[in-house]
Amino acid sequence: MKKLFVILALSTTLFSCKKDNDKEKVFKGPVEQFQMGKAWTWYQEDSNGKPLAMGVSIDDAAMKGLDRNGGTGHMHENNIVLKLHPKAQTVFNHVGLGWNPQGHEPEPIYGKPHFDFHFYMTTPQEVAAIPPYEVDSTKFKNWPAAAYFPATYINPGGGVPQMGAHWIDVTSPELSGALFTQTFIYGSYDGKVTFYEPMITEQFILNNPSFERAIPQPAKVQKTGYYPTKMKIITTNGIVNIIIDGFVLRQAS
User: Fold this and answer.
1) pLDDT digit string (tens) for the chain, length 253 residues
2) What DSSP string runs through 16-29?
3) Distance between CA 220 and CA 132 in Å, rounded?
4) What is the rounded CA–CA span in Å between residue 30 and residue 32?
5) Cα–Cα 20 to 30 A to 123, which of 16, 30, 95, 207?
6) b/e per residue, 50-84, with b = 16+ CB within 10 A?
7) Alpha-carbon gap, residue 175 to 80, rounded angstroms
8) What CA–CA distance (Å, rounded) separates 26 from 7?
9) From CA 189, how far away is CA 30, in angstroms rounded?
């Protein structure tokens, strides 16, 4: 609970870099233009330098000024790169924040206005170099072993340029006829797990200023480092925070 209060307070003060008592620290990444407002990342560590939480913050101007135009599909013109503070000590390299005003395929399921929060383990340059699936599908089809994904995850086929292959949770309610609200996706490319992705509708964020869920865990990881076990939505004073936390140190195997 203490950590939650720290996050709420810091979102009000634009995440000052240090608490007065120096027990827990929050480091803010570069602020970027997003829609009609701003967005940024932040990283919180404990007194021993171990990760507590990291997240993406979107201000009120951005949430109220979202572009409603455009067709369906992953709209790369509405995607931005959010860098992490150099102090961030996790497996993640940067965040790709995307807004899909008409959703994307498959439209009967995911055709609702929603955000994609790609927490990438690869660099922006590596992500930008991923071609369309139709141009070269070879590395999309080079899947990591099943143990590197949660047991309930499958690859539905295909892939997205400048993102990769997406792996979905077959137990997610929208795949059984429920209305899509939020889900958690894994991504891969060329034999590696490359991103974790909370995918959340605009309406769900607006209706749920406080939300928490578990992140499904794989049996193994490819890279030694700190991995999140929980995802949260915390909105306060008009700032939306999409948070991953509950970090645990895992060894590559």
Assistant:
1) 445 444 544 544 444 444 433 567 999 999 999 999 999 999 999 999 999 999 999 999 999 999 998 755 666 778 999 999 999 999 999 999 999 999 988 999 999 999 999 999 999 999 999 999 999 999 999 999 999 999 999 999 999 999 999 999 999 999 999 999 999 999 999 999 999 999 999 999 999 999 999 999 999 999 999 999 999 999 999 999 999 999 999 999 9
2) -S--TTSSSEEEE-
3) 29
4) 6
5) 16
6) ebbbbbbbbbeebbeebeeeeeeebbeebbebbeb
7) 28
8) 9
9) 27
Q: pTM of the full predicted structure?
A: 0.91
- How would DSSP label each residue in 183-247? EEEEEEETTEEEEEEEEEEHHHHHH-SEEEEEPP--S-BSS-EEE--EEEEEEETTEEEEEEE--
Q: At 249, list the tokens.
A: 């140190």
For the chain, what are the domain ranges?
Answer: 2-250
Tokens of 2: 């203490």
Three-state SS at 39: strand
Structure tokens at 45: 């560590």
Q: Which residues of 181-204 are buried (b: 16+ CB within 10 A; e: fewer)?
A: bbbbbbbbbbebbbbbbbbbbbeb
Q: What are phi and psi of 12, to 5 degrees?
A: -75, -35
Answer whether 41's CB lies under 8 Å from 56's CB.
Answer: yes
Q: Which residue has the tokens 């990438």?
A: 120
